[in-house]
Amino acid sequence: MTDNDDLPIGRILTRRDVLKLAAMTGAAAVVGYRPERAAAASNFPACVAQPELTVGPYFVDKQLNRSDVRLEPTTNRISAGAPLALAFAVQQISGGQCKPLADAMVDIWQCDADGRYSGVRDTMVGFDTTGQTFLRGYQVTDASGIARFTTIYPGWYPGRSVHIHFKIRTPASAALADNTTQTYEFTSQVFFDEAFTDKVHAEAPYAAKGPGRLRNERDGIYRQGGTMMILDVARASSGYASTFAVGLDLSNAAVGRPERSGGPRGRGGPGGGRPPGGRPAV
């Protein structure tokens, strides 16, 4: 099912939230701590409280259990683009401590090098990929709270800067059973450093699309999360690699509630649907 909710879900951390989390787990929990910096700051917590951002209209809950999301099964075609090994380190913030969160279902979905999502028809951008599933999938976090994916560095399409969507649902067993009353849900997006993207997109197949990419600073959704949501991408033996840390407060019903006023997330009701006279933010 395609989710047509274009407005932010959950809420952005308020100043009061920041101060509360800072007192509970240390300021680094809300200002962008990355696990690879632990050696330089060993007293910092190992999880990051991140803002929740819009799910957009392109989420298709097909429950594709796969780590390598590049394949399109209907054609056996591998999405063209620079390989990206993307890992999510999911932890739970509880009682002033951070611990790995196992059995969390992590979905990702993104556009290809040409700016197309699978499984949807978009007359504004100009594609119809109904029935296809490339660059979508989920993994369940292991005992260390890690979910790993092999994807590609995303392309771009009009109106948005370069990004990847992700959704975390826990416990995975409840999410897979579509038991929304027992499922904590968190949805957001990760972004990319512009200078890094300039270099990647100067190469094939991205370069063929030409100029016109929206920069992060002009993307209204990016500005809601800012630099906290930028991936630390490094070159790897084959393409690129990044790990993104996410700390979840499972007691926070305002963020984790699967339904909100006006009906379930992404299923209409007050505040849902497309903005008047415009295309949805995705």
Fold and architecture overview:
With 282 residues, this protein is of the alpha+beta class. Strands 5, 6, 11, 14 and 15 form a 5-stranded mixed beta sheet that branches. The chain contains 6 helices and 17 strands. Mean pLDDT is 79; it is low at 1-45 and 258-280. The two termini are 15 Å apart.
> In terms of quaternary structure, what is this?
single chain
Q: Provide the succession of SSEs.
A: EHHEEEEEEEEEEEHEHHEEHEE
Give the termini separation.
15 Å
Which ranges are low-confidence, i.e. pLDDT below 50, for 5 or more consecutive residues? 1-45, 258-280
What's the Cα radius of gyration?
A: 18 Å
**Residue share in helix:** 10-25%
Mean pLDDT: 79
Structural class: alpha+beta
Strand runs, count: 17
Large-scale geometry: globular
User: How much β-strand is present in the residues?
Assistant: 25-35%
- Counting DSSP H or I runs of 4 or more residues, the number of helices is 6
For the report, how would you describe the main beta sheet? 5 strands, mixed
Short account of what is shown:
By secondary structure, this protein is an alpha+beta fold. The protein is 13% helix and 29% strand. The longest helix has 11 residues, at 15-25.
